[in-house]
Amino acid sequence: MRRLAPLLLIAALWLPLAASVWEPGAEPLLENRTLAPPPSLPHTWAMALRFPNAADAWARDHFGFRTRLLVAYNRLRFGLFGEYPSPDLLAGKDGMIFFNFGSAENKRLVRHLCGLNLDADHVADRVMEVTAFLFQMRALHPQTYLLAIPDKSRVFPEALPDWVQAECARATPPLAKLMASIATVPWLEGASLYPLAALRAADPPVYPKSNFHWNLPGARMIADLAAKDLFHMTPTVDLPYRPVPGFSDLTSFMPGLTRPIAESTPDFAAAGIRACQNEAACFPEFPEAAGRLGHLSRFQQVSPAPGRPRLLILSDSFGTALAPGFAPYFAEVWHFSMNDLATSLTPAQRSAMRQAIFEQFQPDIILHAYTETAILWGDSYLEVVRRFVVGE
Questions:
Q1: From CA 230, how far away is CA 97, in angstroms rounded?
Q2: Which of 210, 237, 298, 382 lies 20 to 30 angstroms, CA to CA, from 318?
Q3: Is the pLDDT of residue 20 over 70?
């Protein structure tokens, strides 16, 4: 038995390695991140020095049974303690979950959005930066608008943990102040919308308890509000929505923990709308760039009313659910998430995309739709958008 025990131990140690050969790998974004790629064989001294770390990172992300063990760990920890292994998740009251990313506990998103980490100078700088961004965008295209999407923590502050509420009570949420300041600039009057009151009053809520993004019905309500208050438009077709089962994006942070949510999907065919979403084929005008972008969509009314305008939506990930809501108002809608613009596209691909948008499509109205995070966290996000629109 003493001779057999070491052999069993060696077999157990080799089992994950052997399993990695036949077990399919995890989905690339199952953990809301890109897993480490396999290391390349070194052909320079610098690559040889980096090879051990690259190989170690790949092995940690791809050993056999890793996904199964990760799922089991998440379910066990949540089942026994009700805890979320990811520090980017904040458990609120009555099953509410908030996205709370950051580099340290005192530098996380929820504190930032309620104003704890922002002094008056920072807010003043952001006012100047966002105002300058809108000025330049409107100078290039006068019918340009900004939709600031309220974060879930600002829509349901009463559902935050008591200790977070107590801390946030000492601060003033900065985005409301920023948007109010922009609204006083004469040339920007009527150019922006921050629908916090509408989201707080929405029934049913636009944010499911276990979701970080809003659902399609909630996003549609905001599209209707923006079309009315910003563009002064009414729909020309009726777009019915039908209920479908959905699952929370909690799974992106905790594989193995799925939560059903009430969701719905538009019936584009019934409305006479051609829809294409999240496929490179949606935009044959620039297939290479379209194939590299994570979220993009195109909607065309089959028989648009004469003179009906065209809309371009540039957004972060929240625009994916928002864009369909504008299809009943416009002859054609093009939507692109800017999240992958800088990292996934080459300068030539960005140029081809920009040329197709502004010279071929020629939108009548441009809507920038970004969350509080993208607007407040720093100027880098809007700077990426600005360089894309203006040209590099």
A1: 31
A2: 237
A3: no
